[in-house]
Amino acid sequence: MRWCSVLLGLLLLRLGLLALRGLVLPGAARVVVPGANAVCRASYGRFLGPRDEYGRRYSTFPDGLRSEMREMARAMFLFGYDNYMKFAFPEDELNPILCRGRGPDTENPSNLNINDVLGNYSLTLIDALDTLAVMGNATEFQRAVRLVIDTVSFDKDSTVQVFEATIRILGSLLSAHIILTDTKQPFGNMTLSGYDNELLHMAHDLAVRLLPAFENTKTGMPYPRVNLKKGVPPDSRNETCTAGAGSLLVEFGILSRLLGDSTFEWVARRAVRALWSLRSNDTGLFGNVVNIQTGQWVGKQSGLGAGLDSFFEYLLKSYILFGEEEDLEMFNEAYKSIQNHLRRGREACNEGEGDPPLYVNVNMLNGQIMNTWIDSLQAFFPGLQVLKGDIEDAICLHAFYYAIWKRYEALPERYNWQLQAPDVSFYPLRPELVESTYLLYQATKNPFYLHVGMDILLSLEKHAKANSGFCSESGVAMPRYTTLLRNPKKIGWKAFF
Ligand SMILES: *[C@@H]1O[C@H](CO)[C@@H](O)[C@H](O)[C@H]1NC(C)=O
Ligand SMILES: *[C@@H]1O[C@H](CO)[C@@H](O)[C@H](O)[C@H]1NC(C)=O
Ligand SMILES: *[C@@H]1O[C@H](CO)[C@@H](O)[C@H](O)[C@H]1NC(C)=O
Ligand SMILES: *[C@@H]1O[C@H](CO)[C@@H](O)[C@H](O)[C@H]1NC(C)=O
Ligand SMILES: *[C@@H]1O[C@H](CO)[C@@H](O)[C@H](O)[C@H]1NC(C)=O
């Protein structure tokens, strides 16, 4: 199961940045911001090459190079997008090696890796809308919006994962709707004459089709999957992961507020509260898999990666969006438990005895370490720490992930920090490190993070580019190819724009 950390869309990006100014800068002023270089150098220097070269390389980022990178990011996006439109649309995504479209695996309904995400609803087109706006491409944005309105329907016999449909489809429709109706039009004039809230109506239609997942559950936590036509399939499993049940509030909350109908926010909030009540009394930690009927923890591993990641992310981002104190209180308390029980290594990031800090996987009941790997998804956490205002720890953890990136020119899905080697070595173009890099750049304006962005861009161009798009890099066999476009808004290298 792929629990990607969440995509935000532009709305969040904008609001997040506004909030960033409010939340972070007072703290940032205290922290020695140019410290990014020093932290990275001190902790992970062995990955990064000789000191002088390091200083020369990271301390500036020339304007010319920045526009070159901006054009490269634009070209990479267009390459994937145009080829998707040419070879794959109206199917969900492009197989960039075979140059063919692909939708749900109807022959093998248990192929969840595919069927959780691909709903036979032109996923990539919808997912790309706000990236077209970020790129300032008004004509194509408007054309794509029309195409979505005219051709996409959710009245499909597809069983999709509630979480995936929410973050990819619901989130994309809502952010495109907000872009279309924004009076300020920050990306150039993206308005569409005759637009009559069609994307909002589509979002509503989809959300109503997801609602059955929240019915007939004793705790209020949703079933993980739902058929868009027929509701929850009979004999559905009663288990879900924490992230799946607990990261729906951003999209459901925005939908409720746009529609003036509290139903959606209410069900999402009820699921968060149900999870909240199940945290361990001793450690304050959550497990990764829970039974939605009994509330019992089926998976007791607690960590910041797969199964939990976006649950924490949504607590804080919901607070930033909606300003409900309850969300901030839950986030702060969860953050405290994370610092107390998951964080290992020395107290300060950049000085003192011991290893640089690291967040490990532990048993939720007693805080005992469960394994010696961290996963690639956890790279979202520095970004969240930036939003919280914990810049120094954010710099530190990000530097650790960047050091791994430098070594492999990708992030292995799982990295064993004891052996200092990958445990699972594929890289399905995950965007978490990029998002953290972006937020750290916004918080510090340190050119170091533009270099990180450039390194990531160049690695992808070098290793992940295929005939007609970008695909996952596999050290071990990957069951599928993931186009870069799959998560375009997460892979926007927005810092260059
Ligand atoms: C996808 O939807 C189209 C149009 O509704 C339908 O004709 C087609 O059979 C569906 N494909 C799959 C794989 O479900
Ligand atoms: C806008 O998108 C279209 C379709 O991908 C592309 O052909 C065109 O060059 C883009 N325009 C700009 C300014 O990038
Ligand atoms: C955008 O363009 C439309 C049509 O050309 C125009 O009516 C509208 O005032 C413009 N909106 C903004 C915010 O510039
Ligand atoms: C899920 O829980 C319900 C209610 O407790 C029970 O009736 C059903 O058999 C369970 N389903 C599975 C697949 O275990
Ligand atoms: C925590 O304590 C409360 C009250 O004593 C109890 O009802 C609940 O089951 C406990 N939760 C866990 C996860 O142990």
Automatic annotation (TrEMBL):
One of its GO terms (biological process) is endoplasmic reticulum mannose trimming. It is found in: Endoplasmic reticulum membrane. It is a single-pass type II membrane protein. Residues 1-19 form the signal peptide. Keywords: Endoplasmic reticulum, Glycoprotein, Glycosidase, Hydrolase, Membrane, Signal, Signal-anchor, Transmembrane, Transmembrane helix, Unfolded protein response. It comes from the Eukaryota. GO terms for cellular component: endoplasmic reticulum membrane; endoplasmic reticulum quality control compartment. SUPFAM superfamilies: Seven-hairpin glycosidases. This is alpha-1,2-Mannosidase. It comes from Hymenochirus boettgeri. Its EC number is 3.2.1.-. The active site is at 164 (proton donor), 309, 413 (proton donor), 432. The keyword Glycoprotein applies. The keyword Hydrolase applies.
